[in-house]
Amino acid sequence: MNDERYLRGWEKLKEIDGQAGENVVDSLRDIAPDFARLLIEFPFGDIYSRPGLDLKTRELAVVAALTAMGNAAPQLKVHIHGARNVGCAEQEIVEVIMQMAVYAGFPAALNGLFAAKEVFAQRLDQAANDATKNQR
Q: Does the reported pTM lie above 0.70?
């Protein structure tokens, strides 16, 4: 086992996806713990940690790819959160998803936009809840 690779991946996962990424990994531990480890090591420990692209660019590429796939709504939502976490503006995310209408079709883009709308609303609600808690 390469613990350095795992630790590098775990830190990158937390940086990008925060609790949502940790939840995905935790949900796999009882059915496929080896897959959970691979999910940390390869995408996040190897690919996301490479030089050459910043995390904003990487997350916009992932949002585009998952939108184009058209069958990965849960993963798309996690990565829309991730894109916001690493500094992507809502409008950047919307534009990338709209661009996918040209290459993946309008249904894929529509589904992506609805996923983004849901994520943006969740984040707005969470921010309002956090603000209310801080006022107490």
A: yes
